[in-house]
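Reminder to self: tokens first, then the designed residues, so the page reads top to bottom the way the pipeline ran.
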């Protein structure tokens, strides 16, 4: 089984040897950070020295998709600024309750694509596993904020039904782990899943979509790195950063460690009003990502999920931004502008 590293040993001088920490010790760091995350709007406002009367989503709606912000991520926000681009992404604004025609609960067709046992099969050659409903941060534009996780997780029965579905279809060459956030799972659960996937002969690639190395870089610890390094397939990790301000020195270290563990790093962003809807913001993001060894991959238009309309950037504006970006950046720093349309055989790329 793909396992986490052994316990550290004490050297004669009383210092720890270079042996990595145990699973319980490494988990204590990131799991403690999760427990300490902001979950009350009033606490986040007080920490950021913001107006305590800032309009917030009503309690009943907030209960369905509550606030969650790691303190390390909040520390990258500018205090006293309600328009800070990181704060805008996580604040449960009262505007989420405003009705918006065309915004629905399942905007990307996940429910129709579900085969059962947490497996979604939308695109030829690839299958997606809903590994968990947990995330380190609750982004308010999330396209799965209404997803029925209690009915649709691959983790049941130690992954076996999901693995059997993948093993029975030799047209599938790539497994994509999604959620929630797959890195919310313990090292033990991930190692169990990786071992099962490695046993399916027709799977050549493993892809993980995660925001944790960005919002909770503590998760990229010795235990996780050991099991990631041991995965025998071609390995791709798609990060999710929307603004250069998210990418501090802790994120840089996590990216370096992931690359050194054999993972290709890509980034996908969502084009968000008041966050990154300017050429300068996008260029800064992509330059910073490249400096961390991460290539821009997709820039998504907001999926039209109920509660997210105030984050949307109009398509004509998105096309103009991409035109400006492509004229001032090298091609490898220009992501594909995309929209997901339910029922289509692939994401829809938008030209400019």
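Designed residues (352 positions):
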């Amino acid at each position: 089984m793909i396992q986490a590293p052994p316990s550290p040993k004490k050297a004669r001088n009383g210092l720890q040897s270079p042996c990595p920490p145990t699973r319980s010790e490494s988990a204590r760091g990131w799991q403690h950070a999760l427990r300490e995350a902001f979950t009350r709007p009033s606490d986040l406002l007080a920490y950021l020295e913001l107006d305590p009367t800032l309009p917030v989503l009503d309690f009943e709606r907030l209960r369905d998709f509550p606030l969650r912000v790691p303190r390390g991520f909040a520390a990258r926000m500018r205090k006293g600024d309600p328009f800070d681009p990181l704060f805008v992404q996580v604040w449960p604004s009262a505007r989420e309750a405003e009705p918006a025609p065309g915004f629905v609960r399942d905007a990307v067709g996940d429910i129709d694509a579900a085969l059962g046992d947490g497996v979604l099969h939308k695109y030829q050659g690839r299958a997606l596993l809903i590994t968990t409903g947990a995330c380190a941060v609750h982004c308010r534009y999330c396209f799965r904020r209404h997803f029925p996780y209690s009915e649709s997780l691959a983790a049941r029965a130690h992954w076996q039904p999901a693995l059997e579905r993948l093993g029975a279809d030799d047209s599938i060459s790539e497994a994509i782990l999604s959620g929630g956030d797959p890195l919310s799972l313990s090292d033990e659960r991930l190692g169990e899943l990786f071992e099962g996937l490695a046993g399916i002969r027709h799977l050549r690639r493993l892809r993980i979509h995660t925001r944790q190395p960005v919002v909770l870089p503590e998760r990229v610890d010795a235990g996780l790195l050991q099991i990631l390094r041991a995965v025998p397939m071609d390995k791709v990790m798609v990060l999710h950063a929307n603004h250069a301000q998210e990418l501090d020195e802790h994120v840089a270290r996590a990216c370096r460690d992931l690359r050194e563990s054999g993972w290709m790093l890509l980034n996908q962003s969502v084009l968000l009003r008041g966050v990154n809807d300017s050429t300068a913001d996008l260029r800064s993001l992509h330059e910073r990502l490249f400096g961390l060894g991460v290539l821009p991959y997709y820039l998504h238009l907001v999926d039209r999920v109920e509660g997210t309309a105030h984050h949307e950037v109009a398509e004509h504006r998105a096309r103009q931004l991409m035109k400006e970006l492509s004229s001032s950046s090298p091609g490898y720093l220009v992501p594909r502008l995309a929209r997901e349309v339910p029922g289509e055989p692939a994401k829809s790329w938008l030209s400019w």
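The first strand starts at residue 114 and ends at 116.
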